[in-house]
Structures are given as structure tokens and as C-alpha cells.
Amino acid sequence: MKFFVDTADVDAIRELNDLGMVDGVTTNPSLILKAGRDITEVTREICAMVDGPVSAEVVAEKAEDMIREGKILAQIADNIAVKVPLTWDGLKACRALSQDGHMVNVTLCFSPAQAILAAKAGATFISPFIGRLDDIHLDGVDLIADIREIYDNYGYETQILAASIRSVNHIIEVGKIGTDVITAPPGVIKSMANHVLTDKGLEQFNKDWAKTGQKIG
Ligand code: E4P
């Protein structure tokens, strides 16, 4: 399973990247706002640090404007994946940008039908948003399963990038289904290390060790 980090926080990316946990990064306008940085500057810094794809999102609504913005974003670095929304215009932009040799991440996907269109338009990645479906009492994990089945039926090469991940459980569930990539906030990735029995076991080992009166080294 490839891990993308869903943030524009350079320090958080560096911490995970240094541990070999980062296969790519996803950003969006809200994450750029949260980082409080200039989009070009922060994206360039992330691209230099990370080997894999770094998604940078267009903000225009018309295909021709998305294509223009996408080409500008793609100039930041070779590992930019241009992120376009799953609208009809976004699909047009996906087609044009992918034919131009750019990686394209089609975002804001909420249905298998949308995911089929993105694959046919040449998307490198499709980003189904799990958490936002759960928020409206639909099953986001089911969407990943549906897309996996359909893509496998027809051999589509578009990679499923499970997005809007809110919990460790989401990561495990989409991993069992066979998502190609997950993108999650740094805090969710770090919390994968937590287990109550690990804490309890460590506490006991520390107590017993103190009773031995020994030291290592
Ligand atoms: C994905 O590329 C998006 O940036 C992200 O996963 C959205 O997550 P959210 O629904 O938690 O904002």
C-alpha cells in the first residue's frame, strides 16, 4: 500500500518522510490555507523533499482555465500531479493534461460512475472521498470496493487513491479491499503505531526491569 500524506505542512511531511513513510503528498486549497504559505513556494519545497507524486489542485471551473492552471502547477517540479475536480470540465482538463504527459489526480469523487469516467479520461489517480461520504451516513469504504471491482473487471490502470481518511480503521478497511494508495493526515498515519496493549506491555516491562536493578551499557 502506498502512503501519501494529506497536508501542506512541511515539517509534518519531513518527519514521516525521514522514516520512509511517504510515497507522495496530496494538497488542496483548504490545506494550502491551513499551511498559511504561498502555493508555489510550499509546493516546490514539498516536491524537492519527496520522491513521489505531489498533488497540487487547480481552482478554475472551466476546462480551458484548469488546463492553463494545471500547466503552470506542473512547471513547479517533475513530480507534480495536477489535481482536477470530478466535473465534466475537470474530465476535459484531465484528458488534455494526461495527453500532454502530466500525472493527473481527479479529486472529489463520490460514486463508481464518476470513477469510471475518470479512468476513461486518462486519470493517473482517482480520489474517492471516504470520510465525507461517512459524514452523510453513506459508506465510503463500500465506494472503494465498488471502484476496485469495476477497475479490475476492465483492467483500468488508474490508481485508486483512497482520500478523506479519518481513522486507522479506514486505512485497514481500504487496504483489505486493495486500494492502490491511501492519503491521510499525518496524525492519522502516526496513530497507526498506537495500541493499548503495547502501552500496557511496556509499562509492565519497565516496572519489572526496575526491579532487576540492572542497566544496559
Ligand atoms: C484528498 O486529496 C483530499 O485532500 C483530502 O483527503 C480531503 O479530506 P477531508 O475530507 O478530510 O478534507
Draw up the topology in text.
Elements: E1 2-6, H1 10-18, E2 24-26, H2 29-35, H3 39-49, E3 54-57, H4 63-74, E4 80-85, H5 88-99, E5 103-109, H6 112-120, E6 125-128, H7 130-135, H8 140-154, E7 159-162, H9 168-177, E8 181-184, H10 186-191, H11 196-212
Parallel strand pairs: 1-2, 1-8, 2-3, 3-4, 4-5, 5-6, 6-7, 7-8
The protein binds erythose-4-phosphate (E4P).
Erythose-4-phosphate binds next to helix 7.
**What is the helical fraction, as a range of percent?**
40-55%
First-to-last CA distance: 39 Å
Total DSSP E strands: 8
The molecules bound to the chains, other than polymers, are: erythose-4-phosphate
- Uncertain runs are none
Q: Total number of helical segments?
A: 11
CATH topology: TIM Barrel
Commentary on this structure:
- This protein is α/β, with parallel strands linked by helices.
- The protein has one domain: Alpha-Beta Barrel (TIM Barrel), CATH 3.20.20.
- It has helices at about 10-20, 30-35, 40-50, 65-75, 90-100, 110-120, 130-135, 140-155, 170-175, 185-190, 195-210, and strands spanning about 1-5, 25, 55, 80-85, 105-110, 125-130, 160, 180-185.
- Helix 6 (about 110-120) runs parallel beside helix 8 (about 140-155) and helix 8 (about 140-155) runs parallel beside helix 9 (about 170-175).
- The chain is globular, with a radius of gyration of 20 Å.
- The mean pLDDT is about 100.
- The structure holds erythose-4-phosphate.
